[in-house]
Specification:
With about 350 residues, the protein is an alpha+beta fold. It folds into three domains: about 5-120, Butyryl-Coa Dehydrogenase, subunit A, domain 1 (Orthogonal Bundle), CATH 1.10.540.10; about 125-220, Butyryl-CoA Dehydrogenase, subunit A, domain 2; about 225-345, Up-down Bundle (Butyryl-CoA Dehydrogenase, subunit A, domain 3), CATH 1.20.140. The chain has nine helices and twelve strands. It has helices at about 5-25, 25-30, 40-50, 70-80, 90-100, 105-115, 220-260, 270-300, 305-330; strands spanning about 120-125, 140-145, 150-160, 165-170, 175-180, 190-195, 200-215, 215-220, 260-265, 265, 335-340, 345. Strands 1-4-5-8 form a four-stranded mixed sheet. Strands 2-3-7-6 form a four-stranded antiparallel sheet, with no helix packed on it. α5 (about 90-100) packs antiparallel against α6 and α5 (about 90-100) packs antiparallel against α7. The radius of gyration is 23 Å and the shape is elongated.
Length: about 350
Amino acid sequence: MDFGFNDEQKDVQNLARQILSEQVLPEKLAEYDEFKHERFDQALWQQLAEAGLLGVAVAEEYGGMGFGFTELALFIEEIGRSIAPVPVIPHLVSAASAIQHFGSAEQKQRLLPGAASGELILTAALMEMLNENAGAPLSVTATSAADGVVLNGVKTCVPFADHAERVLLSAATAKGVVVVLVDPKASGVSLTEVKVTTYEPQFELNLNNVTVAAADILVAEAEGSAAMQWISERTSAAICAHQLGVTDKSMRMTASYTAERQQFGVPIATFQAVGHRAANCFIDVESLRLNTYQAVSLLDSGRDATNEVHIAKIWAGDVGHRVSYASQHLHGVWALIAITPCGDYVYGRDTMK
């Protein structure tokens, strides 16, 4: 049995890699450092839309390619590989996929074509202060109104909320959890910018007696908590795919550097300690790859993947730290100055000459 990706899946990944490798350059990324500019490349966003990639997992009847979560994860892996400044995960995974799965025919027709074409942006508010369980909201409540619900409370770390047409979020009611689509420009909604280390545009979303019409209620109370678990697990798996792209690229850049950087007239990749550390990075990245796509494949087939998502999250966090540290070490401060007669290594600072 072939457990590899099929030709269509490889085509999606290769198309994304071609566009992103051409358009996302270190010089352009540097423009967003220290919040000098908003970290959103709208020209790239439109180019991805024109290539059909923003609709990779959107049904064909709504203008998408009609692929599944695996193809979407491969696209997101390439976003991570390039650190592209675009809101693919909140837009396509947390919001659009949820609307396609849970939404009414009217909601799908109203929002998905624009999401696939890039004409509108969707996002999701999955976090509250001291609460990361979107299926059990503590800070946002909803009370019944004549034609919908009224929301009060605060969500935090909402990506690209200032650009969004709708923000997907959950709220606690007397009977359970309701999932709604909030217009960030509606009366009673205010956004407070939150600065994060990734420089991604994020906001605190304050809700003060915000009325959400019945047409923007995505999931009713009886199924709300389960729906948010569905959304959260796919979002987590997508973040793992993004981290896979980041670490794989970092590892390969480091391997290329150590193969070219010479000391004592030979590439430093030939030094045993360098080779061992690079090999550990490779093992880490491949372990993250296997665990990530194990979770992705189960989610794509509609099977339970709670444990697999948790395992992938652990690998994503650990591998991110280990590979980034090793990459910086092998690029910068590593130097094998000499080997003593007894075989011990002596280290010093690399002058990078």
